[in-house]
Amino acid sequence: MNPPIPLHPVIVHTPIALIVFSLLFDLVGRFTDVDWWRKAAFAMLVIGVLGAGAAVLSGNAAEEAAEQQGVPEEAIEAHEAAGIITLWLGVAAVLARWLAARPGPARGAISLLALVAHLLTAGAVGLAGFRGGKLVYDHGAGVKAAAPAVPGDRSGRGSGEQDHD
Question: Cα–Cα 20 to 30 A to 81, which of 23, 61, 63, 165?
């Protein structure tokens, strides 16, 4: 039986890109007072938060494989915590943005709260992405072991033999 397709590395780029860009769109919308920037920001935020939920779920499945590869549990747990924090902050940002769109006396305060939650979500997803990158590049999480390279060989064959074209 083949191992399951590793979905986590594919899924994680959705929340990273969309949450960060939704923040940029939100800031442009606030500074220019152009409504479509804010609407696009909200749509991207919602999809980014849904992606964060999928990333957390797929990360739970990837955790066991990383532990079997010898990746330190502390590094995995730190990455997982940043992902979960991203998800909850993102949910708070979405709810606050939704509430801020409703008329009422607290609309301005809720809008500011939504911006703060959005900023924190973007920071948290950046931290989660950074920690995930360290899992891959520092610890080799999810990376298949390859044949050892021969020093000085750039042919990609690994044998050091000459190219006879």
Answer: 23
Q: Where are the domains of the chain?
A: 8-64+74-138
pLDDT of residue 34: 95
What's residue 42's pLDDT?
97
Fill in the amino acid letter for 141.
A
Q: Which two tokens stand for residue 40?
A: 């696009």
Task: Check: CB of residue 46 under 8 Å from CB of residue 94.
Answer: yes
Rounded Cα gap, residues 81 and 60, in angstroms: 11
Tokens of residue 63, six digits? 């955790």
CA 60 to chain centre: 14
Residue 147 has pLDDT above 50, yes or no: no
Give φ, ψ of 4 to 5 degrees.
-65, 155
Distances (CA, A) of 52 to 15, 45, 95, 108, 113: 5, 10, 15, 27, 20
- In the chain, the largest separation of any two C-alpha atoms, in whole Å, equals 79
User: Helices H, strands E: what count in the chain?
Assistant: 5, 0
Is the pTM higher than 0.90? The answer reads no
Q: Predicted confidence band at 1 (pLDDT cuts at 50, 70, 90)?
A: very low
Q: Which residues touch 61 (CB under 8 Å, ≥6 apart)?
A: 4, 7, 8
